[in-house]
Amino acid sequence: MITGKDLLDLGLKPGKWFKEALEHINAHDLTGDALHAYLDTVKPAPVIPLLDAPVHFYENIRADTAVEQANIDYVRQSMQQLMRTPTVVAGAIMPDACPAGPLGTIPVGGVVATRNAIHPGMHSADICCSVMLSNLGKTDPKTVLDVAQAITHFGPGGRDPEKQFALPAEILAEMQANPFLNSERSLKMAREHLGTQGDGNHFLYVGVSKATGDTMLVTHHGSRGVGAVLYGHGMKVAEFFRREISPATAPDNAWIPSETPEGVNYWDALQTVRKWTKRNHEVLHEAIAAKLAATVQQRYWNEHNFVFRDGDVFYHAKGATPLAAKFMPDITGPRIIPLNMAQPILIVEGDTTTNNLGFAPHGAGRNLSRTRHKYSKIGQTNEAIFEAETQGIDARFYFNRIDISELPSAYKNAEDVKQQITDFNLATVIDEIHPYGCIMAGDWEQDAPWRKKKLAKAAAALAAQGGVDTQEDTSALTVE
Ligand SMILES: Nc1nc2c(ncn2[C@@H]2O[C@H](COP(=O)(O)O)[C@@H](O)[C@H]2O)c(=O)[nH]1
Ligand SMILES: [Mn+2]
């Protein structure tokens, strides 16, 4: 009779599988070659260690100030840890790179390519955060912003039933067919959150093309509750695999093997969430154009938090703009890079170069976290800061509460970022959309009773940490 000790003597990793295997072995009197052949089919895969050294990654960023240098130092250290994850084959950071969590977490402005592995923690929690542009011809920009303000929805939760947009049958069917998406909660959010922008740095921007003088509507938001719930499930499944196959890998870098049933379903779920998010932009653009009776002359979009596939290699972009045609199945125009509310939005095109892995930056990025930025303004009123930073533009907050952490000074210098796009040969700027004005959620939680407690806690954490803290904007991810 074969016992657990015999299996241990063979060097096998103990686990729940022992019980079933021993029953089978003893029921069939397996020994010798037959025993080994059977064990090969049931024993757990060997544990995969971290790589001995980090895989090389391209640094497409330079610092002009001490704060920027501290930012880069942290991002570099983080990437060096991350690039030892056993699935990783290539990586790059962009000029907008900034920390997004503990050391070893992919930064905002990061691209990490892995083989046969989807890492939910590397595509960001706001799956498919994206930008869409509609060219509304010579429509008056102020009229566009006024109409848009009456139609769009910012803040937590979804639309009231009488204001909801129809969820396309194709998306509903895909959600119902996917175990990651087929829950009452997700389906409810898919209906209610359609046509909503959330909060944080999500925006609706109206500007004028430098090249043509046409008025452009640009929206920035992601997959709302639908994506947030998928992300939560994805991280749990990845953690299950991590414990089994690579416990040395950091939990934030856990992966779902792409060829397992879970991997196939997760990949499909990402594509469905992408379709939902695209529709989330489209319903707003269509409703605004219809109300204006404007003919849409061109519409294009791109996601900047997503996973892109090239054969068995998965490119994780956490705040990076895909340029290479192979990454986007539905290209209808160039790519869109916002910088801040008072600066032009860049319209770019490009392809894969040696150092960009097929991506460009997705924005300007932050030098300071939202909390640190607020501290840097202590002594000035919100109104004075707003007045100074929004001169010449029609900047509106949906909830009429100024959010200073979304004003231009919260972001890196737009000119520097633009210069680095050229200097690192990342993309070519083909047009600029000059700002007329914008709508953002604003600080809708300003008067919440728990707000002071939260700020005090964040301040204590910052003081204890003494270093650079996360600059990822996850404020748009509240799942109600
Ligand atoms: N044109 C505007 N750009 C903005 C605004 N707020 C932020 N930004 C830029 O967008 C990127 C994208 O941020 P992420 O949430 O996707 O990481 C950010 O880096 C900023 O440069 C705005 O109000 N208007
Ligand atoms: Mn975004």
From TrEMBL:
Entry EC number(s): 6.5.1.8
SUPFAM superfamilies tied to this protein: Hypothetical protein PH1602
Cofactors: Mn(2+)
Pfam families in UniProt: RtcB
Substrates-to-products reaction catalysed: a 3'-end 3'-phospho-ribonucleotide-RNA + a 5'-end dephospho-ribonucleoside-RNA + GTP = a ribonucleotidyl-ribonucleotide-RNA + GMP + diphosphate
This protein's UniProt keywords: GTP-binding, Ligase, Manganese, Metal-binding, Nucleotide-binding, RNA repair
Keyword GTP-binding: yes
InterPro entries the UniProt entry points to: RtcB, RtcB-like, RtcB-like_sf
Signal peptide: none
Keyword hit for Protein biosynthesis: no
Protein name: 3'-phosphate/5'-hydroxy nucleic acid ligase
Species of provenance: Hymenobacter glaciei
Lineage: Bacteria, Pseudomonadati, Bacteroidota, Cytophagia, Cytophagales
